[in-house]
Every structure is written in C-alpha cells, then in structure tokens.
Amino acid sequence: MGASDGFAKLPHIGEKVRRKEDYRFLTGSGQYTDDINLPNQRYAAFVRSPHAHATIKSVATERAAAMPGVVKVFTGADVAGKMGGLPCGWLITSTDGQPMKEPPHPILAQGKVRYVGDHVAMVVAETVEQARNAAEAVEVDYDVLPAVVDVRDAAQASALHDIAPDNHCYKWAIGDKAAVDAVFAKAAHVTKLDLVNNRLVPNAMEPRAAIGAYSRANDEYTLYVANQNPHVERLLMTAFVLGLPEHKVRVIAPDVGGGFGSKIYLYAEDVALTWAAKQLNCAVKWTCDRSEAFLSDAHGRDHVSHAELAMDSQGKFQALRVHTDANLGAYLSTFATAVPTILYATLLAGQYTTPQIYCEVDAWFTNTAPVDAYRGAGRPEATYLLERIVTRAAWEMNIPQDELRERNMITAFPYQTPVALQYDTGDYVGAMHKANALADVKGFDARRKASEAKGLKRGIGYSSYIEACGIAPSNIAGALGARAGLFECGEIRVHPTGSVTVFTGSHSHGQGHETTFAQVVAARLGIPVENVDVVHGDTGRVPFGMGTYGSRSISVGGAAIMKALDKIEAKAKKIAAHLMEAGDGDVEFANGEFTVKGTDKKIPFGQVALTAYVPHNYPLDKLEPGLNETAFYDPTNFTFPAGTYVAEVEVDPATGVVRLDKFTAVDDFGTIINPMIVEGQVHGGLVQGIGQALLENCVYDKDSGQLLTGSMMDYAMPRADDFPSFTLDTVCTPCTHNPLGTKGCGEAGAIGSPPAVMNAVLDALRPLGVKDLDMPASPARVWEAIQAAKP
Ligand code: MCN
Fold first, then answer.
1. Contact 53, 158 (CB under 8 A)
2. For the chain, how many helices (H) and strands (E)?
3. Which of 75, 288, 426, 569 is the 20 to 30 Å CA partner of 66?
4. Among 379, 349, 209, which Cα is nearest to 287's?
5. Chain segment 666-724, per-residue pLDDT in tens
6. Which of 232, 508, 551, 728 to mutate to test the pocket of ligand 1 (most atoms within 8 A of CB)?
7. CATH architecture of 7-30+487-633
8. How close is the Cα of 748 to the center of ligand 1, in Å?
9. Mean pLDDT, all residues of the chain
C-alpha cells in the first residue's frame, strides 16, 4: 500500500484509541531506570566542578576512599589514555573551508574544568548516601580562571580550549550574500530586529539515570539508561569512546519519563558507569537529582540574532538577512553543531515566498553547560526570529499581521526554498483562515475595549510556523556533516495465532508509540489493536535503529514498519494462494481477509499465520516457513508540518503581569493516526513554548559563571494554571513521500507558540510605547520595559 489517502481511511486510523501504555503507568508498574536494581549493585556519585573555569592543580581522593562503604574513587587520571572523549555527531565546515574546532570532551576532567557541573571524579560506594558523602570529601585544588557565559563576550574572553584560542567553533553560512545585499540596496522598506532566544533547561519529569553492568562470564556489558536512542548511544560509546565491539554491549532504555531532546545524547556519566562496571566487576547505578540535572543536562537555545527583512512597497518579502551568534556551551554535545546551522537556517523561509535569504552563524564556546537540541532544536529559533520580524514589519507597514503573512504565503507545491529545503505539501492560507475564525479575531477590538475598561492592555499575536521533521535522507545529511545514518528499522513478528509483536528502533518516552504503532499495524493487517504489542528501547531485542528525536517516529519509524508489513503481506499472499489453490497474483488482502479475485474464496489472516508456523499444508518447495519480516526505511525528504497560532494576552501595566487569555492553534500534521495523542503532543509543546515566552530563563552569573537558576525555585517552570484552555484544530495535506501520509507533531507546539505569545505581548504594549522585549516576558521585564518607554 503506497497511497496515504487510502491508508487514512482504514479502521483504527484517526481513532482516539486509548493509550495501551497507560495502564502500566497509572498503576505504578512502569519500569524506569531507577526502578531497576541488579544483583551486586553499587552506587555512583559524581564530583562536579564548583567553578565555571579553573585549572585543576590536584585531586586528593585518600580521605574519600577511606570513608565507609566506598569501593573506589575514579579521577581523570584513571581514565586518561584508557578511553576517548565524547564525540560530536555532526561536523560543520566553516565558510573558510576549515573543519569546526572540535576540542576533547573528556569523561572525567583532564587538568581543567570548563563549566559549573563539569565532571571531575566518580565515587562508587555501597549506598547512594555513602557515595554522595564521599564525593564531598574528594579534595580538588583549583586555580580559578576568568569565565565567560554570554555568547557576545566569548571572542574577548580567556580561551576555554587550546584548539580555539578565540572561543570560536565555526562560522557557517547559507545563501547568496551578494544577491541578498543587492536586493536590500533597492528595497522600498527594511525592517530590522535584534533578539535573544533565551537559554532553557529541558527538565524532563524523570531525571537522567543509568546502570552500568558487566558479566565476566561472557565479557558482556549492559547499560540501562534513560535515553531516546539506545543504538546511537551504543554506537557512539563503543566506536568512539570505549573501543569495544558493539555486540559485547547491550543498551536498554526502559520506560523513560520524558526527554524532550535532552536524552538523545551520550553523556559522560553513561560511559563512566559502563566502564567502571568491568573495573569493579559489579553493577554501578547513578540517578541524577534535580539540581544535578540543572547543571549537567544539555540545555537548549541561547541564540543572539540580528535580522533584516527587505520588502517592496506592498509588503512583499524580497530578502531576509540574518546573523546569529550561537552559544554551544563548554563542549560540543552530540548534535550541538547541527542545531544552529542545518536545523535552523534552512527553516528561515518559513511559510513565505521570500526569494533570497542569507544567514550567517558564528558558534562559540562559553563556560556554560553544553547546549544541544531541546524540543524543536533550530526550528524554534528560526520560527521565533522570522515570525517576530514579520509581525514587526506588519506594524511598520501598517498592514494587519495576518494580512501581511497571507500576502507572502506559499500556495503552490512542491516549493523549493532558497535555503535548501523543498516543501512537498501544505495549506498555509487555509490554516490561517481557520485560526482566524476559531480565534474570533473579528471580536478582538471589542475584547480590547473591555480590557481597557479594566485598566488592562490586550494584544493579539500571530505565528505561522513551519518545521522540518525526520531529518533526511541519509546521503544528503551525510554530505552536510552528519556522522550517522537517519533511517529507521521495523520488524514485524507475526505469531502462529495471528497476534503480532512489532520491534521498532523508535523510542517512546511519552509519545504513545505503543498505541499509535499498534494502530498502524492493526489497521494494515485487519486485526484488533489489542493483538499488537510494540517492543522498543533495547539493542538486544530490536534491529539497529536511530531512535526518537526531530518528530520522526511515526513518519520514519512508522514507514519502516509499513515496509516490513509490505513484505509480510507479500509472503502471506503466497501462503494464502497455496491454501486457496489460486495464482499468487490473484490473491487480494483487505480487512484481515485474503480473497481470490472473481471468486468467493476467502481465508482469514489468522489461518495464514498458523499455516506459516504449522506448515503441514505448505509450499515448502517455494517458501520458507514463518512470518517474520524486517525492513529499514530511509526517507527521501523531511516532513513539513505547519500551521498558524493566534495568541491573545492581557497585560497589567501597573504590575507587568501577562495573562494568556486565549490560544488558538491550527496545525497540519498530514494524516493523523491518533487525534487524542496528537492533541496531547500539541498541548505539551504549547506549554513548553509558552513557558519559554513567559516564564523560563536559564541564567548564569556574568562574572562567576555560577548557574543562578539552578532549581525550580529560581527557574520558573510552567504550571497548569498559567494557561487557558487551548483551542485546537487541524488542516490536512498528507505528506507525499511516506506511506502513511503523516507529518511529525511532537515539537510543533514548542516551535510555533513563542513568537505568537511575544507578538501578542508587544501588541498589548505598543500603545505604551514599548517597541521591543526579549523572552521571557516576565512581570519584572514587562514592567521595566513600560517604565523605560515612558517619556
Ligand atoms: N502521531 C500521529 N499522527 C501524526 C503524527 C504523530 O498519531 N500525524 C503520533 C505518533 O504516532 C506518536 C506521537 O504522535 O505517537 C508523536 O509522533 P511524532 O511527531 O512522530 O514524534 P516522535 O514520536 O518522534 O517524538 C519526538 C518528539 C520530540 S522531537 C520531542 S522533543 C518530544 C515530543 O516528541 N519529546 C517528548 N513529544 C514528547 N512527549 C512526551 N510526553 N515526552 C517527551 O520527551
């Protein structure tokens, strides 16, 4: 089956099937890494740098080693020369043709620490408390060096790495600068904007956790880890760091309580625990606490940008020119370098026909936690920049926000953007019109007057986002610097009684794959959803897969499953043909039944499955027994979800408090497998995106480099009562190049919502003379902006 339209009509597709996994979670039966305890298990605690930048003069472990229960204290000296450092998975080539600066990223610090939280030593003890107490007794003598945390100061700061004396990692650019400059020279109107995309801490509900285990009997390692892509974790750890053969290492990512990108990466702790398990011949467990997570999880965003939009007198976009400084933190995390480049600048066309775009990115090292993908990765940064400047342009040109957008929207597909991507389908104007109707934009003026009567300012903000999901194809990504493939695998094991186990390389950590993937298989085979179970997250059980990130799972992992189902169907048809004494080509399969064209002969799927395993009446001369197929799928293009979001806020000018009053989101995710799950995904994304716009901000002290927002007391996480009830709807243009017609939905809310909210806040503040504001629009910032704008 190739046609997505046909697939969308099958039973189970588009049904709000309740999540199969929830019984386990709601009854407390989930098995998260910290729930797992192995025989002969010890506990690790990490000694982390209290300084943002320092030379390590000495590490004294004697006192810690003598403390009760301590098994071993490992320092940088113990790992030096025995293993590599953490690799970066994406090589960026600078505009001068030189490769990016790729400094060593040691598992335990080697002579220097570069951010508060950098891993200096690992203590292993009989209990968690003993390990933590002993970690405090490790005496590290530091020579403190000057620290830099702001990307704008990086070039002048003292060098973090010898290899990058000016702290510069790379300069990267896309587009034709001369052509763009020429358009700007003649433009009727140019809108300019400077903005900061604030740094965020991912804060998944389950903090990171890992257990390294080792069996002397067969020289095999097992790593249990809260991770989004166990095969990638294993590949990076074995090939790049520990130099072990892959088949000797099994990585199991059991139930994982959210990742939002932060659990894609190979972290130093995972390596240290796995390696130590063999050294000590015991299992070693570590569970991160929340404070440690704030310090040591990879953070998100942290861009400083300048953008300029050239228009003709009618507001038609002619060119976009952007410069971005991206903060990479102290070391290169696994996919850090792709975020401000390939995943960012290629999205700057947005939904618009802008013919010329030039974007230049400088990426810098600073004394902060490494920065990497976080729900959206690159796409939120592009959307925020573009949708902010478009709204500002609308105000400058005195054209309504929605009208200026509509004048510039792409309406014919496929559409080749000037920044490499080719969009296959979309209905941008349709989504905008639907959003306008649902948001009752016509009634806005009346609502604004009602707010004014209460002494409040009301504003409306738009964002018409696009994103690219399921990075593809592998060969092009490889040419752009990816050091990994971007395919996915799927295995379908049909059991003799006709039930099915699906093995997928995708990993579900909240997205509901156990339900939606089962829906896909059940729809295709015409069997109940209950008869399909999904296995994921175990390199020992699942064929090599690339895991879950970039909202790729249903469109890439689901497509791999569809390919495996093609093989199942082809083989099952041959068995059915034999059973019904028909020619192979005459057998058809639909709704769980095999039929012979032009006859009333039919047999159910279950009978074919049984025959495959009890091959008494079977064409053994032509066909192997069994019904078990594996497929790998490498997508030919990204999927391009898109939509329009409309936010309405009320601002109290006396206090600066912003209240989000209404939020309308109209998305295009192509064919939707499970609308309930998709709605949940949009809700989660919106909450994170609106959290970024109004509340969340990761702040390091400028002088000391200390993390000032190191707990939920200082870092404002969004809560349910910060939000109104969201109004959601969809338009549907199925993706043309995957068999399901799906487009990713997991990040859309986080990508589309920040500019909608900020545009609404700025709209509300315009009458007070406020021209600009960076996220988050916290009461203090809003109040200060109002005071500063007073004549
Ligand atoms: N789906 C659907 N129909 C569509 C698209 C998706 O029914 N047209 C379903 C899928 O089958 C899947 C879910 O919606 O059950 C999300 O699918 P998809 O958009 O393919 O995204 P992934 O499964 O690849 O999830 C990754 C995405 C990302 S990149 C982040 S970050 C994120 C997100 O998902 N992290 C999450 N959502 C999260 N949700 C939870 N609870 N926890 C996280 O860590």
1. yes
2. 20, 28
3. 288
4. 209
5. 999 999 999 999 999 999 999 999 999 999 999 999 999 999 999 999 999 999 999 99
6. 551
7. 2-Layer Sandwich (3.30)
8. 10
9. 97
Instruction: For residues 688 and 200, give the distance between their C-alpha atoms in angstroms, rounded to a whole number.
Output: 10
Q: At what angle do helices 605-613 and 558-579 cross, to 10 degrees?
A: 80
Looking at this protein, which amino acid is placed at residue 228? Q
List all residues 6 or more positions away from 708 whose beta carbon is below 8 Å from its beta carbon.
699, 700, 701, 714
Residue nearest to atom 9 of ligand 1 (CA): 678
Sign for the pseudo-dihedral over CA of 440, 443, 449, 453: negative
pLDDT at 1: 40
Q: How far is the CA of 685 from the centre of ligand 1 (A)?
A: 10
Q: Which atom of ligand 1 is nearest to the CA of 510?
A: 41
Distance 28 CA to ligand 1 centre (A): 23
Pocket residues: Cβ below 6 A from ligand 1: 204, 258-261, 375, 509-513, 516, 548-555, 669-674, 677-678, 681, 684, 742-747
The DSSP result for 54-88, as a single string, is: EEEEEEE-HHHHTSTTEEEEEEHHHHTTTS--PPP
CATH superfamily ID and name for 33-145+207-256+263-295? Aldehyde oxidase/xanthine dehydrogenase, a/b hammerhead (3.90.1170.50)
Ligand 1 centroid to residue 589 C-alpha, Å: 30
In DSSP notation, 717-751 reads ---GGG----EEEEE----SSSTT-B---SSHHHH
Query: Where in the chain are the domains?
Result: 7-30+487-633, 33-145+207-256+263-295, 303-399+641-789
**In CATH, what class is 303-399+641-789?**
alpha beta
Reported pTM: 0.97
C-alpha span between 239 and 536 (Å, rounded): 22
Q: Check: CB of residue 339 under 8 Å from CB of residue 372.
A: yes
Q: How far is the CA of 160 from the centre of ligand 1 (A)?
A: 37
44 - beta bridge partners? 124
Q: Which of 365-393 are b and which e, b meaning 16 or more Cβ less than 10 Å from the residue's Cβ?
A: bbbbbbbbbbbbbbbbbbbbbbbbbbbbb
- Hey, how many other C-beta atoms are within 10 angstroms of the C-beta on 551? 30
- The 3-state DSSP composition of the chain as helix, strand, coil percent (nearest 5) reads 30, 25, 45
Q: Hey, whose CA ends up nearest to atom 13 of ligand 1? A: 511
d(CA 28, CA 547): 25
pLDDT of residue 5: 64
Nearest-CA residue for ligand 1 atom 33 is 746
Query: How far does the centroid of ligand 1 lie from the alpha carbon of residue 203, in Å?
Result: 17
Ligand 1, atom nearest to 555 Cα: 20
- 7-30+487-633 shares its CATH topology with 303-399+641-789: yes
